[in-house]
Amino acid sequence: MMARRQRMRATMAACAVTTACACTPSPPPPHAVSGVAQGTTYSLQWTGNVAEADVAAAAEQELARIDALLSNYRDDSLLEQFNAARSTTPIELPSELVALLELAKRIHSASEGCFDPTVRPLVRAWGFDGDSPAVPTADAIDEARAAVGLDKLELVDATHARKTVPMLELDMASIGQGYSAGRLAELLERHGSAAYLVEIGGEVVARGSKPDGSAWRVGIENPVPATGIGPALRIPPARRTAVITSGSYRHYLEADSRRFGHIIDPRSGSPVEHALVSVTVVGDDAATAAAWGTALLCLGPGAAAATAEREGLAALFWRTRDDAPPALEYTRAFASEWHELLEERRAPGR
Questions:
Q1: What is the CATH number of the domain that holds 224?
Q2: Given 114, 139, 173, which residue is the final one in a domain?
Q3: 273 φ, ψ to 5°?
Q4: What is each CA distance from 262 to 60, 134, 148, 173, 297, in whole angstroms?
Q5: Are residues 266 and 336 in the same domain?
Q6: Coil, strand, or helix at residue 263?
Q7: What is the pLDDT of residues 95-134, one digit of tens each?
Q8: Quick one: 262 and 165 in the same domain?
């Protein structure tokens, strides 16, 4: 820090030697911290007089708190304690979790049942909760489906939920990282920053501008990189913006000459196999955008487009095509509000 101040004083002194000097000190880079959490990486960039050590400590504490609330990979999380309770009596839960379940129920209803965090037994049956997915037997799928269905979960009040089927289990992964990104954005705002970019596992929430006044830019990945690089979205400075992408092209199972994406349609009990391979939803709330991304990816090309239009969602879709580069499509809400902020990117060396 001392060396940086010395360099800045030297630059300012050089400019003061003569009024003809046109040089001005470059704006400092944004503050930045990064780490590992929730089985992935995260990073925060921001402007303002907030110590990096303070933000790093607060971010780690908040991510650890969310992990203890929503993780499916630790037996002591509140979510796994709920899953382990084989009971149909009301169970006390934090109001924060019940609020997320209320969000899930709204999107479940609006997506024809495609968004459903009770899908966990099916995720386990297909092995997508581990490193060795495999096609289960028809009996195993039927057994898992018997415990799946958000209609089997009753939200009693703001702090209680009740299973109507004792074996019902929740998987909040489709909301968790988006929700975490939103919470980290709120953390930075509480620390006094109005300009930041938060990213966790590819889920992004941003606001304001970089120190040099330019916009934050969020890349929209082409699911088939060999066919070209995806565009970037410039973030408008005046509003908090979540850019959340759900894709089936990274985590999948190949069996019997078929490719099964890790997104499971709870209505059929099987992974999706359609041509829609990636959905990006842009909005104000990261958890809502994350839930809709999964719901639309489950619905498939035609139903996803129709649902997104009906709900007024700003969404981008990548569809695969035989013997041709994937096609990028977008909703009317995206076209009217965001299309002018979408810009092409060039691959390095091009």
A1: 3.10.520.10
A2: 173
A3: -130, 10
A4: 28, 11, 17, 12, 11
A5: yes
A6: coil
A7: 999 999 999 999 999 999 999 999 999 999 998 887 788 8
A8: no
